[in-house]
Amino acid sequence: MHKNWPQMASELSHAIKEVRLGTPEVMKSFSAMARAATEAGALDAKTKELIALSIAVAIRCDGCVAFHAQAAVKLGATRDEIMETMGMALYMGAGPSLMYAAQAVEAFDQFAEQQAAA
Fold first, then answer.
1. How far from 72 is each of 37, 51, 99, CA to CA, in Å?
2. Could you give the CA distance from residue 69 to residue 63 in angstroms, rounded to a whole number?
3. Average pLDDT estimate for 14-33
4. I need a surface site. Which of 45, 93, 108, 115 has the fewest CB within 10 A?
5. Other CB atoms closer than 10 Å to residue 73's CB: what's the count?
6. Total-model pTM
7. Alpha-carbon distance 110 to 73, whole Å?
8. Domain residue limits, the chain
9. Do the Cβ atoms of 5 and 107 come closer than 8 Å?
10. What whole-number distance in Å separates Cα of residue 41 and Cα of residue 72?
11. Based on the number of CB atoms within 10 Å of its own CB, is 3 exposed (0-12), middle (13-18) or buried (19 or more)?
């Protein structure tokens, strides 16, 4: 199964904008929480995105995989780091996570290819 992860992220961004317009106060709070959670502290931002990607795999959230793979690429994650991250997701989520780990690697590769072409 091959998905176009950059397209998925783009389409979801438009749909999320509609939710943002319909629930501005809730989304303002959600955005503030996201900024606080991803801000570098004891863990750097890239490490936090890798954690988010592994959670996205473990809970089997396609949109989450798309956005966090994209963010990992932007923050300079390497394919080796993605593979180790997927190892942790597999450890925590077993067989179902294997199916999503394969998709997360595919998403990372597509975003990395897109960034290299830019």
1. 15, 10, 19
2. 10
3. 93
4. 115
5. 23
6. 0.81
7. 10
8. 5-117
9. yes
10. 17
11. middle
- Token pair 């389409």 is found at 11
Secondary structure class of 1 (helix, strand, coil): coil
Tokens for 82? 């993605």
Nearest to 87 by CA among 97, 96, 78, 77: 97
Phi then psi for residue 39, to 5 deg, are -65, 140
Phi, psi of 66 (to 5 degrees): -60, -50
pLDDT more than 70, % of the chain: 99
User: CB count, 10 Å around CB of 74?
Assistant: 13
pLDDT value of residue 87: 92
SS (H, E, C) 11-34: HHHHHHHHHHHHCHHHHHHHHHHH
- Which of 20-34, 40-54, 84-98 is least confident? 84-98
For 30, other C-beta atoms within 10 Å of its C-beta total: 14
The type of residue at 32 is: A
Q: State the amino acid at position 90 in one-letter form.
A: L
- 111-116 contacts, C-beta under 8 A, 24 or more apart: 111/5, 111/6, 111/69, 111/70, 111/72, 111/73, 112/73, 112/79, 114/6, 115/73, 115/74
